[in-house]
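FAQ: What does the model actually see?

It sees only this:
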Amino acid sequence: MSQPDPIGVYTAAKPPFLRRLTMEAFDAIPPGHQMFALLELDVTDTLAAIRAQQEAGARVTLFAFVVQAIAATLAAHPSLNALRSGARIFTFEDVDVSVPIELKTKSGPFPHQIVIRRAQDKTAAEIYGEIEAARSQQANSGVAGGEDRWGRAMMRALLWVPKAARNAALRQVMQAPRTVKRRSGTTFVTSVSRFATAGGFVVPYIGGPKATAFALGSVLEKPRVVDGEIRVRSVLSLTVAFNHDLVDGGPAARFVRDLQARVEGAEGLA
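And it is asked to produce this:
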């Protein structure tokens, strides 16, 4: 009696354009040397402040607030708002935050990039407004913003040349900090908190020239000691990725300390 084919049922297909764009970009990004901070931040008071603002009519979310807190803290630690180009380090005054937002496409949900410019000078409500405006723009035009349009146009052009040439061209872009800032900002913040119900941390990708990247995980109720008593608190999982080529342990620790104080203290929400 013949045995069934162990391969089983499978499919083989070319990836959609947006997935191929992502694959090609990651192939071209040079590897780096990373270190990570896995943080649990008590956001109980922060969430209460956000609810108070929402009840007063403000449009603000925890994600928008954390993006603003990250930008403000980076502005206070400018050596972490930097990009590398070979043996040179470019440090920028403005914190431009790249944010992927999942949008509906012909191939299904897919993240599109927008960049929040000068995020250190904006409120959480203003950042939320920019994110929602990008969603509306994508629904009407198919692109979420100028950076999204530029990235897709460049990849469509490069797909006509051999892969080795594509990778070389993309690496040239990665070696141009002013172009990187113009097209994808100085740092990266992503979130899976809308979809995550389990605890744990999300580790963001941080190849390439940027000094930092951030990933928000879920908010869970956990016991914490507050004023000598054990209480149930709302705790946010936040991962900070540092490019060790640009950031050492001491500056990273001081940045994390100040970011924790800003987030847990709900700075800017009062």
